[in-house]
Design goal:
The chain has 463 residues and is an alpha/beta fold. 46% of the residues lie in helices and 14% in strands. The strands form three sheets. A five-stranded mixed β-sheet has the order 1-12-11-7-10, with helices on both faces. It has a five-stranded parallel β-sheet with strand order 3-2-4-5-6, sandwiched between helices. Helix 9 links the parallel strand 5 (174-179) and strand 6 (195-199). The structure holds 5-phosphoarabinonic acid.
Length: 463
Protein backbone atom coordinates (compact mmCIF):
# COMPACT_ATOMS: atom_id res chain seq x y z
CA UNK A 1 0.00 0.00 0.00
CA UNK A 2 1.30 3.44 -1.00
CA UNK A 3 1.66 5.58 2.05
CA UNK A 4 3.02 9.05 2.51
CA UNK A 5 6.22 9.30 4.52
CA UNK A 6 8.05 11.95 6.52
CA UNK A 7 11.78 12.63 6.41
CA UNK A 8 12.67 14.66 9.50
CA UNK A 9 16.48 14.37 9.27
CA UNK A 10 17.05 18.03 8.45
CA UNK A 11 15.20 19.31 11.49
CA UNK A 12 17.95 18.38 13.91
CA UNK A 13 20.89 20.34 15.27
CA UNK A 14 23.65 17.99 14.04
CA UNK A 15 22.47 18.68 10.48
CA UNK A 16 21.27 22.31 10.52
CA UNK A 17 23.20 23.55 13.50
CA UNK A 18 22.14 24.38 17.04
CA UNK A 19 20.79 27.86 16.28
CA UNK A 20 17.52 26.60 14.81
CA UNK A 21 17.82 22.82 14.84
CA UNK A 22 16.03 20.57 17.30
CA UNK A 23 18.01 18.62 19.81
CA UNK A 24 17.29 14.98 20.50
CA UNK A 25 16.35 15.56 24.15
CA UNK A 26 13.63 18.12 23.53
CA UNK A 27 12.25 15.98 20.71
CA UNK A 28 12.12 12.83 22.84
CA UNK A 29 10.62 14.82 25.69
CA UNK A 30 7.56 15.42 23.48
CA UNK A 31 6.68 11.71 23.50
CA UNK A 32 4.63 11.79 26.69
CA UNK A 33 2.83 15.12 26.10
CA UNK A 34 2.04 13.86 22.58
CA UNK A 35 0.58 10.63 23.93
CA UNK A 36 -1.58 12.60 26.33
CA UNK A 37 -2.62 15.09 23.66
CA UNK A 38 -3.64 12.31 21.30
CA UNK A 39 -5.65 10.62 24.05
CA UNK A 40 -7.39 13.93 24.86
CA UNK A 41 -8.29 14.44 21.20
CA UNK A 42 -9.42 10.86 20.57
CA UNK A 43 -11.51 10.88 23.71
CA UNK A 44 -13.72 13.49 21.98
CA UNK A 45 -14.09 11.41 18.81
CA UNK A 46 -17.67 10.31 19.45
CA UNK A 47 -18.57 13.59 21.11
CA UNK A 48 -17.68 16.95 19.62
CA UNK A 49 -14.80 15.98 17.30
CA UNK A 50 -16.81 13.84 14.92
CA UNK A 51 -14.60 14.84 11.98
CA UNK A 52 -12.18 12.22 13.30
CA UNK A 53 -14.61 9.49 12.25
CA UNK A 54 -15.51 10.88 8.81
CA UNK A 55 -13.39 8.31 6.94
CA UNK A 56 -15.74 5.62 8.19
CA UNK A 57 -18.98 7.42 7.18
CA UNK A 58 -19.91 5.06 4.37
CA UNK A 59 -23.62 5.92 4.37
CA UNK A 60 -22.88 9.54 3.53
CA UNK A 61 -20.48 8.50 0.80
CA UNK A 62 -23.18 6.35 -0.83
CA UNK A 63 -25.74 9.16 -0.62
CA UNK A 64 -23.30 11.52 -2.34
CA UNK A 65 -22.46 9.05 -5.08
CA UNK A 66 -26.16 8.43 -5.74
CA UNK A 67 -26.84 12.16 -6.05
CA UNK A 68 -23.78 12.73 -8.26
CA UNK A 69 -24.93 9.91 -10.51
CA UNK A 70 -28.45 11.32 -10.72
CA UNK A 71 -27.23 14.69 -12.07
CA UNK A 72 -24.44 13.34 -14.29
CA UNK A 73 -24.41 14.93 -17.73
CA UNK A 74 -26.98 17.59 -16.80
CA UNK A 75 -24.59 20.45 -16.02
CA UNK A 76 -21.53 21.96 -17.66
CA UNK A 77 -20.47 23.80 -14.50
CA UNK A 78 -20.48 23.21 -10.77
CA UNK A 79 -20.13 26.41 -8.78
CA UNK A 80 -19.29 26.40 -5.10
CA UNK A 81 -20.70 29.31 -3.15
CA UNK A 82 -18.82 29.05 0.12
CA UNK A 83 -15.85 30.56 1.89
CA UNK A 84 -13.04 29.50 4.25
CA UNK A 85 -13.43 25.88 5.20
CA UNK A 86 -16.37 25.63 2.83
CA UNK A 87 -14.25 26.28 -0.26
CA UNK A 88 -10.53 25.74 0.32
CA UNK A 89 -10.68 21.96 0.70
CA UNK A 90 -12.48 21.41 -2.57
CA UNK A 91 -10.17 23.75 -4.44
CA UNK A 92 -7.23 21.72 -3.14
CA UNK A 93 -8.88 18.47 -4.20
CA UNK A 94 -9.59 19.79 -7.67
CA UNK A 95 -6.04 21.03 -8.27
CA UNK A 96 -4.49 17.87 -6.87
CA UNK A 97 -6.71 15.23 -8.39
CA UNK A 98 -8.16 16.70 -11.56
CA UNK A 99 -5.06 18.70 -12.39
CA UNK A 100 -4.66 22.29 -13.48
CA UNK A 101 -6.15 21.94 -16.97
CA UNK A 102 -9.25 19.85 -16.23
CA UNK A 103 -11.58 22.72 -16.94
CA UNK A 104 -10.15 23.36 -20.40
CA UNK A 105 -11.45 20.03 -21.60
CA UNK A 106 -13.42 18.18 -18.92
CA UNK A 107 -13.84 14.46 -19.39
CA UNK A 108 -17.09 13.45 -21.03
CA UNK A 109 -20.08 14.22 -18.85
CA UNK A 110 -18.05 15.91 -16.14
CA UNK A 111 -18.61 19.58 -15.33
CA UNK A 112 -16.07 22.34 -14.81
CA UNK A 113 -15.59 23.58 -11.25
CA UNK A 114 -15.59 27.16 -9.99
CA UNK A 115 -15.00 28.02 -6.34
CA UNK A 116 -16.33 31.54 -5.82
CA UNK A 117 -14.97 32.23 -2.37
CA UNK A 118 -15.07 36.01 -2.53
CA UNK A 119 -17.60 38.79 -2.89
CA UNK A 120 -15.38 41.06 -4.93
CA UNK A 121 -17.94 42.61 -7.31
CA UNK A 122 -15.56 42.17 -10.25
CA UNK A 123 -15.21 38.44 -9.58
CA UNK A 124 -18.94 37.87 -9.21
CA UNK A 125 -19.98 40.44 -11.82
CA UNK A 126 -17.75 38.89 -14.45
CA UNK A 127 -19.03 35.44 -13.61
CA UNK A 128 -22.62 36.63 -13.96
CA UNK A 129 -21.75 37.96 -17.42
CA UNK A 130 -19.96 34.83 -18.63
CA UNK A 131 -21.66 31.86 -17.02
CA UNK A 132 -24.78 30.21 -18.38
CA UNK A 133 -26.96 29.52 -15.31
CA UNK A 134 -29.14 27.12 -17.28
CA UNK A 135 -26.14 24.76 -17.53
CA UNK A 136 -24.91 25.27 -13.95
CA UNK A 137 -25.36 23.56 -10.63
CA UNK A 138 -24.76 25.77 -7.58
CA UNK A 139 -23.55 24.07 -4.41
CA UNK A 140 -24.23 26.51 -1.57
CA UNK A 141 -22.04 25.51 1.36
CA UNK A 142 -22.28 27.07 4.80
CA UNK A 143 -22.09 25.25 8.10
CA UNK A 144 -23.63 28.17 10.00
CA UNK A 145 -26.07 28.91 7.21
CA UNK A 146 -25.80 32.65 7.67
CA UNK A 147 -22.37 33.80 6.45
CA UNK A 148 -22.95 37.14 4.71
CA UNK A 149 -20.63 36.44 1.78
CA UNK A 150 -22.17 33.09 0.95
CA UNK A 151 -25.74 34.21 1.51
CA UNK A 152 -25.33 37.29 -0.67
CA UNK A 153 -23.88 35.15 -3.46
CA UNK A 154 -26.77 32.75 -3.05
CA UNK A 155 -29.33 35.56 -3.37
CA UNK A 156 -27.60 36.86 -6.51
CA UNK A 157 -27.35 33.52 -8.29
CA UNK A 158 -30.81 32.40 -7.20
CA UNK A 159 -32.24 35.49 -8.88
CA UNK A 160 -30.18 34.88 -12.00
CA UNK A 161 -31.34 31.27 -12.09
CA UNK A 162 -35.01 32.15 -11.67
CA UNK A 163 -34.74 34.64 -14.50
CA UNK A 164 -33.02 32.07 -16.70
CA UNK A 165 -34.97 28.88 -16.03
CA UNK A 166 -38.05 29.89 -14.03
CA UNK A 167 -38.98 29.71 -10.36
CA UNK A 168 -39.92 26.05 -10.33
CA UNK A 169 -37.00 24.69 -12.35
CA UNK A 170 -34.38 26.74 -10.49
CA UNK A 171 -34.49 24.40 -7.47
CA UNK A 172 -32.95 21.63 -9.58
CA UNK A 173 -29.90 23.85 -10.02
CA UNK A 174 -29.21 24.32 -6.31
CA UNK A 175 -27.82 21.82 -3.84
CA UNK A 176 -27.17 22.95 -0.31
CA UNK A 177 -24.66 21.71 2.27
CA UNK A 178 -25.34 22.99 5.77
CA UNK A 179 -26.17 22.09 9.36
CA UNK A 180 -28.88 19.47 9.87
CA UNK A 181 -31.23 21.83 11.63
CA UNK A 182 -29.75 25.19 12.49
CA UNK A 183 -29.27 28.24 10.28
CA UNK A 184 -31.11 30.22 7.63
CA UNK A 185 -29.77 28.12 4.79
CA UNK A 186 -31.44 25.01 6.15
CA UNK A 187 -34.69 26.92 6.51
CA UNK A 188 -34.42 28.18 2.94
CA UNK A 189 -33.54 24.74 1.59
CA UNK A 190 -36.64 23.30 3.24
CA UNK A 191 -38.82 26.12 1.96
CA UNK A 192 -37.52 25.92 -1.61
CA UNK A 193 -37.28 22.15 -1.76
CA UNK A 194 -33.56 22.18 -2.54
CA UNK A 195 -31.67 18.94 -2.30
CA UNK A 196 -29.62 19.28 0.90
CA UNK A 197 -26.64 17.53 2.46
CA UNK A 198 -25.62 17.81 6.08
CA UNK A 199 -22.46 19.04 7.74
CA UNK A 200 -22.60 16.76 10.78
CA UNK A 201 -22.35 18.05 14.33
CA UNK A 202 -18.77 18.06 15.54
CA UNK A 203 -17.39 18.93 12.10
CA UNK A 204 -16.16 22.53 11.93
CA UNK A 205 -15.60 24.31 8.61
CA UNK A 206 -11.85 23.80 8.30
CA UNK A 207 -12.13 20.16 9.40
CA UNK A 208 -14.91 19.40 6.93
CA UNK A 209 -13.20 18.51 3.66
CA UNK A 210 -13.96 14.80 4.18
CA UNK A 211 -17.64 15.51 4.87
CA UNK A 212 -20.21 16.44 2.18
CA UNK A 213 -18.58 19.90 2.17
CA UNK A 214 -15.69 18.51 0.12
CA UNK A 215 -16.95 15.11 -0.96
CA UNK A 216 -20.10 16.27 -2.74
CA UNK A 217 -18.45 18.69 -5.18
CA UNK A 218 -15.55 16.24 -5.51
CA UNK A 219 -17.90 13.47 -6.60
CA UNK A 220 -19.67 15.86 -9.00
CA UNK A 221 -16.41 16.56 -10.83
CA UNK A 222 -15.41 12.91 -10.95
CA UNK A 223 -12.95 12.66 -8.08
CA UNK A 224 -12.57 9.25 -6.47
CA UNK A 225 -14.12 9.99 -3.06
CA UNK A 226 -13.89 6.38 -2.03
CA UNK A 227 -10.12 6.55 -2.50
CA UNK A 228 -9.97 9.76 -0.47
CA UNK A 229 -11.85 8.19 2.42
CA UNK A 230 -9.78 5.02 2.26
CA UNK A 231 -6.60 7.10 2.39
CA UNK A 232 -7.92 9.04 5.38
CA UNK A 233 -8.98 5.82 7.05
CA UNK A 234 -5.49 4.42 6.51
CA UNK A 235 -3.97 7.47 8.21
CA UNK A 236 -6.50 7.23 11.02
CA UNK A 237 -5.42 3.62 11.64
CA UNK A 238 -1.76 4.57 11.37
CA UNK A 239 -2.01 7.37 13.93
CA UNK A 240 -4.67 6.19 16.37
CA UNK A 241 -2.53 3.99 18.57
CA UNK A 242 1.02 4.48 17.33
CA UNK A 243 3.76 5.69 19.63
CA UNK A 244 5.21 9.15 19.12
CA UNK A 245 8.20 8.16 16.96
CA UNK A 246 6.02 6.15 14.56
CA UNK A 247 3.13 8.56 14.46
CA UNK A 248 3.35 11.12 11.64
CA UNK A 249 0.57 13.38 12.98
CA UNK A 250 2.17 13.51 16.43
CA UNK A 251 5.58 14.24 14.98
CA UNK A 252 4.21 17.05 12.76
CA UNK A 253 2.50 18.61 15.77
CA UNK A 254 5.50 18.33 18.07
CA UNK A 255 7.94 19.71 15.50
CA UNK A 256 5.74 22.72 14.82
CA UNK A 257 5.38 23.41 18.51
CA UNK A 258 9.06 23.00 19.38
CA UNK A 259 10.36 25.08 16.49
CA UNK A 260 8.13 27.97 17.42
CA UNK A 261 8.37 27.89 21.18
CA UNK A 262 11.95 26.71 21.77
CA UNK A 263 13.63 28.00 18.62
CA UNK A 264 11.70 31.15 17.88
CA UNK A 265 10.72 30.17 14.35
CA UNK A 266 7.17 31.55 14.08
CA UNK A 267 6.79 31.12 10.31
CA UNK A 268 5.87 27.73 8.89
CA UNK A 269 6.46 27.54 5.14
CA UNK A 270 4.80 24.74 3.19
CA UNK A 271 6.98 24.47 0.10
CA UNK A 272 5.14 22.40 -2.46
CA UNK A 273 7.36 20.83 -5.09
CA UNK A 274 4.30 19.82 -7.01
CA UNK A 275 2.04 22.11 -8.91
CA UNK A 276 -0.83 19.82 -8.09
CA UNK A 277 -0.27 20.08 -4.36
CA UNK A 278 -0.01 23.86 -4.27
CA UNK A 279 -3.59 24.40 -3.08
CA UNK A 280 -3.15 21.82 -0.32
CA UNK A 281 -0.75 24.34 1.17
CA UNK A 282 -3.53 26.93 1.03
CA UNK A 283 -5.94 24.57 2.71
CA UNK A 284 -3.38 23.83 5.43
CA UNK A 285 -2.67 27.53 5.92
CA UNK A 286 -6.27 28.12 6.96
CA UNK A 287 -6.37 25.01 9.11
CA UNK A 288 -3.26 26.03 11.01
CA UNK A 289 -3.96 29.76 11.24
CA UNK A 290 -7.57 29.59 12.33
CA UNK A 291 -7.05 26.71 14.71
CA UNK A 292 -3.93 27.79 16.59
CA UNK A 293 -3.96 31.57 16.14
CA UNK A 294 -5.62 32.53 19.43
CA UNK A 295 -5.53 35.39 21.89
CA UNK A 296 -6.68 33.33 24.81
CA UNK A 297 -5.42 30.01 26.15
CA UNK A 298 -7.83 27.39 27.42
CA UNK A 299 -6.96 28.41 30.97
CA UNK A 300 -8.16 31.95 30.26
CA UNK A 301 -4.68 33.48 30.08
CA UNK A 302 -3.66 35.80 27.27
CA UNK A 303 -1.31 33.90 24.97
CA UNK A 304 -1.48 35.39 21.46
CA UNK A 305 -0.43 31.98 20.15
CA UNK A 306 0.02 30.72 16.66
CA UNK A 307 2.49 30.07 13.88
CA UNK A 308 2.20 32.05 10.66
CA UNK A 309 1.63 29.75 7.69
CA UNK A 310 3.22 30.67 4.37
CA UNK A 311 2.79 28.88 1.04
CA UNK A 312 5.48 28.54 -1.58
CA UNK A 313 5.63 26.58 -4.82
CA UNK A 314 8.74 25.00 -6.26
CA UNK A 315 10.34 25.80 -8.59
CA UNK A 316 8.41 29.02 -9.13
CA UNK A 317 9.28 30.56 -5.78
CA UNK A 318 12.95 29.70 -6.11
CA UNK A 319 12.95 32.79 -8.29
CA UNK A 320 10.93 34.84 -5.83
CA UNK A 321 11.14 33.78 -2.18
CA UNK A 322 14.19 31.57 -1.80
CA UNK A 323 16.66 34.46 -1.50
CA UNK A 324 14.79 35.53 1.64
CA UNK A 325 14.48 31.97 2.91
CA UNK A 326 18.21 31.40 2.55
CA UNK A 327 19.61 34.63 3.88
CA UNK A 328 16.81 36.46 5.66
CA UNK A 329 15.93 36.31 9.36
CA UNK A 330 15.98 33.05 11.26
CA UNK A 331 12.21 33.01 11.70
CA UNK A 332 11.08 30.21 9.36
CA UNK A 333 11.04 26.48 9.03
CA UNK A 334 10.05 24.47 5.98
CA UNK A 335 7.90 21.52 5.03
CA UNK A 336 8.64 20.31 1.53
CA UNK A 337 5.85 18.44 -0.24
CA UNK A 338 7.49 16.06 -2.70
CA UNK A 339 6.06 13.59 -5.21
CA UNK A 340 8.06 10.45 -5.92
CA UNK A 341 6.33 9.37 -9.11
CA UNK A 342 4.88 11.96 -11.50
CA UNK A 343 2.13 10.88 -13.88
CA UNK A 344 4.06 12.28 -16.83
CA UNK A 345 7.60 12.03 -18.12
CA UNK A 346 8.65 14.96 -20.28
CA UNK A 347 11.90 14.70 -22.21
CA UNK A 348 13.90 17.78 -23.10
CA UNK A 349 14.89 17.59 -26.79
CA UNK A 350 18.55 17.57 -27.74
CA UNK A 351 19.66 20.77 -29.43
CA UNK A 352 22.50 23.26 -29.45
CA UNK A 353 25.12 20.69 -28.51
CA UNK A 354 27.72 23.31 -29.45
CA UNK A 355 26.50 25.62 -26.67
CA UNK A 356 27.38 23.67 -23.50
CA UNK A 357 25.36 26.01 -21.25
CA UNK A 358 22.17 24.89 -23.01
CA UNK A 359 23.16 21.59 -24.61
CA UNK A 360 23.58 19.80 -21.28
CA UNK A 361 19.80 19.84 -20.83
CA UNK A 362 19.14 17.88 -24.03
CA UNK A 363 18.10 14.26 -23.53
CA UNK A 364 17.39 14.76 -19.83
CA UNK A 365 13.83 14.94 -18.48
CA UNK A 366 11.87 17.65 -16.71
CA UNK A 367 11.38 15.04 -14.00
CA UNK A 368 15.14 14.99 -13.41
CA UNK A 369 15.38 18.77 -13.52
CA UNK A 370 12.44 19.24 -11.13
CA UNK A 371 13.88 16.72 -8.66
CA UNK A 372 17.33 18.28 -8.92
CA UNK A 373 15.90 21.74 -8.20
CA UNK A 374 13.92 20.44 -5.24
CA UNK A 375 16.84 18.51 -3.79
CA UNK A 376 19.21 21.39 -4.51
CA UNK A 377 16.99 23.87 -2.70
CA UNK A 378 16.64 21.50 0.23
CA UNK A 379 20.40 21.01 0.45
CA UNK A 380 21.00 24.76 0.22
CA UNK A 381 18.45 25.56 2.93
CA UNK A 382 19.92 22.85 5.12
CA UNK A 383 23.43 24.22 4.61
CA UNK A 384 22.09 27.66 5.52
CA UNK A 385 20.91 26.26 8.88
CA UNK A 386 17.19 26.30 8.06
CA UNK A 387 15.27 23.36 9.56
CA UNK A 388 13.17 21.47 7.06
CA UNK A 389 11.27 18.24 6.71
CA UNK A 390 9.85 16.49 3.67
CA UNK A 391 6.46 14.89 3.26
CA UNK A 392 6.76 12.46 0.35
CA UNK A 393 3.77 11.36 -1.69
CA UNK A 394 4.50 8.12 -3.60
CA UNK A 395 2.19 9.62 -6.22
CA UNK A 396 -0.63 12.14 -6.26
CA UNK A 397 -3.85 10.18 -6.07
CA UNK A 398 -7.00 10.14 -3.98
CA UNK A 399 -5.49 7.71 -1.50
CA UNK A 400 -2.39 9.76 -0.72
CA UNK A 401 -4.33 13.02 -0.64
CA UNK A 402 -6.79 11.48 1.83
CA UNK A 403 -3.85 10.47 4.01
CA UNK A 404 -2.36 13.95 3.97
CA UNK A 405 -5.63 15.70 4.78
CA UNK A 406 -6.30 13.47 7.74
CA UNK A 407 -2.72 13.62 9.02
CA UNK A 408 -2.68 17.41 9.06
CA UNK A 409 -6.13 17.70 10.64
CA UNK A 410 -5.08 15.38 13.43
CA UNK A 411 -1.73 17.15 13.79
CA UNK A 412 -3.44 20.52 14.21
CA UNK A 413 -5.87 19.10 16.77
CA UNK A 414 -2.88 17.78 18.75
CA UNK A 415 -1.09 21.13 18.36
CA UNK A 416 -4.09 22.72 20.08
CA UNK A 417 -3.20 20.63 23.15
CA UNK A 418 0.48 21.57 23.00
CA UNK A 419 -0.22 25.28 22.57
CA UNK A 420 -3.00 25.12 25.19
CA UNK A 421 -5.59 26.72 22.92
CA UNK A 422 -9.00 25.71 21.64
CA UNK A 423 -8.23 24.56 18.10
CA UNK A 424 -11.89 24.37 17.14
CA UNK A 425 -13.27 27.86 17.64
CA UNK A 426 -12.59 31.04 15.70
CA UNK A 427 -13.56 34.06 17.79
CA UNK A 428 -11.45 36.35 15.61
CA UNK A 429 -13.37 35.33 12.48
CA UNK A 430 -16.69 35.72 14.28
CA UNK A 431 -15.71 39.22 15.39
CA UNK A 432 -15.14 40.23 11.76
CA UNK A 433 -18.45 38.65 10.74
CA UNK A 434 -20.33 40.57 13.45
CA UNK A 435 -18.70 43.85 12.41
CA UNK A 436 -19.72 43.25 8.79
CA UNK A 437 -23.32 42.44 9.81
CA UNK A 438 -23.42 45.65 11.82
CA UNK A 439 -22.04 47.80 9.01
CA UNK A 440 -24.51 46.22 6.57
CA UNK A 441 -27.38 47.16 8.89
CA UNK A 442 -28.47 43.63 9.84
CA UNK A 443 -31.29 43.51 12.38
CA UNK A 444 -30.08 42.93 15.92
CA UNK A 445 -26.66 44.51 15.32
CA UNK A 446 -27.53 48.20 15.75
CA UNK A 447 -25.67 48.48 19.04
CA UNK A 448 -22.54 47.02 17.46
CA UNK A 449 -22.86 49.51 14.60
CA UNK A 450 -22.99 52.41 17.05
CA UNK A 451 -19.98 51.03 18.89
CA UNK A 452 -17.94 50.67 15.68
CA UNK A 453 -18.88 54.12 14.43
CA UNK A 454 -18.06 55.73 17.77
CA UNK A 455 -14.61 54.15 17.63
CA UNK A 456 -13.84 55.40 14.11
CA UNK A 457 -11.33 58.26 13.90
CA UNK A 458 -13.07 61.55 13.18
CA UNK A 459 -10.23 62.67 10.95
CA UNK A 460 -8.48 60.42 8.45
CA UNK A 461 -4.78 60.62 7.60
CA UNK A 462 -4.53 60.27 3.87
CA UNK A 463 -2.05 61.25 1.20
O1 LIG B 1 -13.26 26.92 9.59
C1 LIG B 1 -14.20 27.64 9.77
O2 LIG B 1 -15.05 27.41 10.65
C2 LIG B 1 -14.43 28.88 8.92
O3 LIG B 1 -13.37 29.11 8.06
C3 LIG B 1 -15.69 28.72 8.10
O4 LIG B 1 -15.56 27.64 7.22
C4 LIG B 1 -16.00 29.99 7.32
O5 LIG B 1 -16.03 31.10 8.17
C5 LIG B 1 -17.36 29.87 6.63
O6 LIG B 1 -18.36 29.60 7.57
P1 LIG B 1 -19.69 28.90 7.17
O7 LIG B 1 -19.37 27.54 6.64
O8 LIG B 1 -20.49 28.84 8.42
O9 LIG B 1 -20.34 29.75 6.13
Amino acid sequence: MDQISLDITNLFAPIVGPRAGLNEEEFKAMAEPSRQALAAVQERRERDLRWLALPQAEGVRDEILTYADSVKGQFDNVVILGIGGSGLGMRALQTALNGPYHDLEPQAGLPRLFVLDNVDPDLIGEFLETNDPARTLFNVISKSGGTAETMSQFLIFRQQLIEAVGAEEHARHVVVTTDAERGFLREIADREGYCAFTVPDGVGGRFSVLSPVGLLPAALVGIDIEGLLKGADHMDERCRGAEFMDNPALVCAAVQYLLQTNHDLPIAVTFSYSHRLRDLADWYAQLLAESIGKRQGRDGSTVHAGPTPVRAVGVTDQHSQVQLYMEGPFDKWFTFLAVEQSDHTVTIPEAYGDIPGVGYLGGRTLNELFAAERDGTRVALTDAGRPNMTVSFPRVDAHTIGQYLYMMELAVAVMGEHYGVDAFDQPGVEAGKVAAYALMGREGFAEEKTRIEAGMPTERRTL
